[in-house]
Amino acid sequence: MSIRAEHLTHLYSPGTAFESYALKDISFEIADGSFVAVIGHTGSGKSTLIQHLNGLYRPTSGTVYYNGEDIFAEGYDLKALRTKIGLVFQYPEYQLFEEDVITDVMFGPKNMGLSDDEARARAKKALMQVGIGESLYKRSPFDLSGGQKRRVAIAGVLAMDPEVLILDEPTAGLDPRGREETLAMLEELHSERKITVILVSHSMDDVAECADMLMVLKDAELKFFDRPKEVFRHVEELESYGLAVPEITYLAHDLIKAGLDIDPTVSTVSEAKAELLKLLKW
Amino acid sequence: MLRDITIGQYYPVRSPIHGLDPRTKLAGTFIFLISLFVTKSLIGYLIATFALIFLIRISRVPARYITKGLKPVLIILVISVSFNIFLTPGRLLFAIGPLKVTAEGLKTAGFMAIRLIYLVIGSSLMTLTTTPTQLTDALERSLGFLNKVHVPVHEIAMMMAIALRFIPILIEETDKIMKAQMARGADFESGNLIRRAKALVPILVPLFVSAFRRAADLANAMEARCYHGGGGRTKMRPLKYGTSDKRAYAVMLVYFVIMILTGFLKI
Amino acid sequence: MNIIKAAHIFYEYMVRDENDKVIETTKALNDLSLDIEEGSFVCLLGHNGCGKSTFAKLINALNLPKEGTLLVNGMDTADGSLTLRIRESAGMVFQNPDNQIISNIVEEDVAFGPENIGLPSEEIMERVDEAINAVGMQAFRNKSPNQLSGGQKQRVAIAGIMAMRPKCIIFDEPTAMLDPDGRKDVLEIAHRLNREENITIVHITHYMEEAVDADRIIVLENGSIAEDLEGRPMDGTPKDIFSKVEDLKALALTVPVITELAYELRKEGLPIREGILTRKELVDALKPFFPKTR
Q: Can you tell me the mean pLDDT for A63-70?
């Protein structure tokens, strides 16, 4: 059980003067139940990549296997795949359209051919998971606050009960509390429902906290696919890609320069705290 | 397909055509379009062809950029040409089943095709060499007399300019919304007409909501930058006729007279 | 001199039902009083709905306070005859880069403001040149905004304001929709305009790191200046404000990670000072506790 990409290549405008790679010979395997963060500069191919994973884009060459099956093979049911690999786009609240919250969340399950009752049950469960209470079910989605809208939109995908959840910058534009809550919600989904989570992000600090694998893209190529700590060792390379390591990792480097023998891969506040208290014998 | 429309796109280079006053170009396009309809002779079309080639050369817009604009009108072209070929009565050349091809039919279809193609090339040449703002300025100035009969010319021109700016953004947005709804299992391709029309609701509602939000944002941004309607506004580059415009008008006049004359020729 | 003087201002939003009956009123600003000194770089922080964007719109006279007076560069925003002059002296950059660019060509967009106030053509041209240079967009002046990145679009928007030669620019979450590069660009330009052109900057943001280099931070909550746990106003230098980690958390805000780490270490009893904001400050503070070399 996994998502496996093999030599995935996507060319824009092939055969013209504007020909350019959106993805170039990308291969990886994402094991079931992992929490993967995809990091890269704007235009590095992140968004194109995730849209290949549920078949919204077709590769120029190479392919994607889901649970061992080639999703681009003739006769493969892409519509069914999209219910198993849920994709939440950037600013998902811009896709809300129904009269009330619950009906909007039911849209996905109903497209799967479920009955009204089943769809409603799924929608309720999904709304509960994102922390939207019953009092809001009958409200128009357009009357909610920004953070609530975003959660309703995520519930709209969750209600299809996907095995994999892909999110394109789910925290963009949210305030600090919204960001924290969204990330906490994802971690909970991942640990409790054993969903595979693939998170596209700009923030190294965010992903250092939650991801167990890190994918780094640069100019359509996959540069790293490893545990975050291993990736953070390559400070110079990451910087040459226009990326940064977490602020705490930079601090560790500064401390080493100042003469403290600290682990150069610490990346979160809690790690750094434990490490420093130990080293400073406090 | 929508991305292929070159009408309304500006090709930023410096050329004598780019440098003309947009009103001159507007008038020129108008005269060129009319000339295509007043002439009925081969020689007239030859002159129009030379004029067009000459204009494209000095405009420094690559020819393939201009021909790209023809793609979206191809269907209309094929339909109207086949109508003309098959439905014009006259001297029978040959027949494919019930469809009769006549010499007159071929001739009108040929002229029809040339007219349509030149029409599109002529107008895209104007939009490719004129920024949308210049174009709307030109319309605003040339139609200014309509203000007297209470037509809000400035507002209409401003609306056109804004529409041109936001069309590509909304096209991109439509694409994104469509994909997002497909990720939620929406199906836009199967089912009968009613089902398909209903399937558009999840696209249209978010699109309208977004368009209204953008409109509200834009209204704020415009007000914040002291916009208060057309009154008291000045221009960074006010429209001013120069010597080249006078020459262009002279050339246009000569061209137009010749084209009218060719209308009487029987070649 | 204070370029912005707000005295006891109130503002309400009303939610109406289909019959135009008011069903809900939200006090977006609730007795807010604050002055902003000319030439300073001020950050307004607060979670969504705290009233910071409402305040920004009032400064620009896009909305008028329901009660209280708001003076911008000495002019009362309630006086309709001054509206254009107020907007000229206090420009505004908004969140969505796309929804504030009007024209299809960069330089024409920059000219939009000066054209609206009816300046002569030569002066508009001069100001547009100057403004485009100020944000480093010379290479893009004849491009279409649709060909630019989010950060570049925001630079164009800033140039559009600069062409009005404002005394003050209000940045209403201009970085919220940008990638890290775009954010850095916008922030750098804001600081440069403040330093080199002496323009007062009011920067509204959610990103705490963006507030570290400000002259002053004001935290808003429920439409007025927030209070810390001891009831004092949350208004001061970054060092002051970020010393109040608990207070900020209580207001649903965070602190920059370095500050957070320093705070956590202090909580464990490590005697380092409060209000550490940068890596360098933290390294210096920790140095005395390094184990003696082996």
A: 95
d(CA C259, nearest CA chain A) in Å: 10
**Tally of structural domains, chain B:** 2
Q: Which of A75-89, B26-40, C35-49 has the lowest mean pLDDT?
A: B26-40
Helix (H, G, I), strand (E, B), or coil: what is residue C93?
strand
> Mind listing the domains of chain C with CATH numbers?
2-239 (3.40.50.300)
Same domain, B191 and B250: no
Find residue B146's DSSP bridge partners: none
Could you write out the DSSP letters of every residue in A75-92?
A: T--HHHHHHHEEEE-SSG
Least confident interval from A253-267, B151-165, C169-183: B151-165
Q: Could you tell me which chain C residue has the CA closest to the CA of B11?
A: C143
Contacts of C98 in chain B (CB under 8 A): 169, 214
Q: Which residues of C touch A173 (CB under 8 A)?
A: 95, 176-177
Looking at this protein, which amino acid is placed at residue C272? I
User: How many Cβ atoms from other residues are within 10 Å of residue B89's Cβ?
Assistant: 9
Question: How much is the pLDDT for B108?
Answer: 82
Q: Cα separation of C64 and A79, whole Å?
A: 51
* Residue B50 structural domain: 1-130+239-267
For residue C59, give how far its alpha carbon lies from the nearest alpha carbon of chain B (Å).
10
Q: Helices in B60-152 by DSSP H: which ranges?
A: 63-68, 74-87, 103-129, 132-142
Q: Which two tokens stand for residue C108?
A: 């024409």
Q: Is B244 found in the same domain as B194? A: no
Per residue in C64-94, pLDDT (tens digit) is: 999 999 999 999 999 999 999 999 999 999 9
Report the candidate in B226, B223, B239 with the shortest Cα–Cα distance to residue B144: B239
Percent share of chain A, pLDDT over 70: 99
- Backbone CA torsion sign across A85, A89, A93, A94: negative
Residue type, C248: L
C112 closest CA partner among B162, B142, B147, B19: B162
The interface pTM score, or ipTM, of the predicted complex is 0.90
C-alpha to C-alpha distance for A269 and C258, rounded to whole angstroms: 8
Task: Give the separation between CA A132 and CA A115, rounded to whole angstroms.
Answer: 22
DSSP string, A143-201: GS-HHHHHHHHHHHHHTT--SEEEEE-TTTT--HHHHHHHHHHHHHHHHHH--EEEEEE
User: Is B243 found in the same domain as B112?
Assistant: yes
The closest of C174, C241, C181, C168 to C208, measured between CA atoms, is C241
Cα–Cα distance between C43 and C247 in angstroms, integer? 17
Question: Which residue of chain C has the CA closest to B170?
Answer: C98
pTM of the complete model: 0.87
Token pair, residue A5, equals 């990409």
pLDDT at position B3: 47
For residue B257, give both structure tokens. 């007279």
Cα separation, A198 vs A3, in Å, equals 11
Q: Please choose, from the candidates C234, C233, C195, C220, the residue with its C-alpha nearest in 3D space to the C-alpha of residue C58.
A: C220
Q: Are A89 and A161 in contact (CB under 8 A)?
A: no
Dist. CA A29–CA B31, nearest whole Å: 64
pLDDT of residue B1: 35
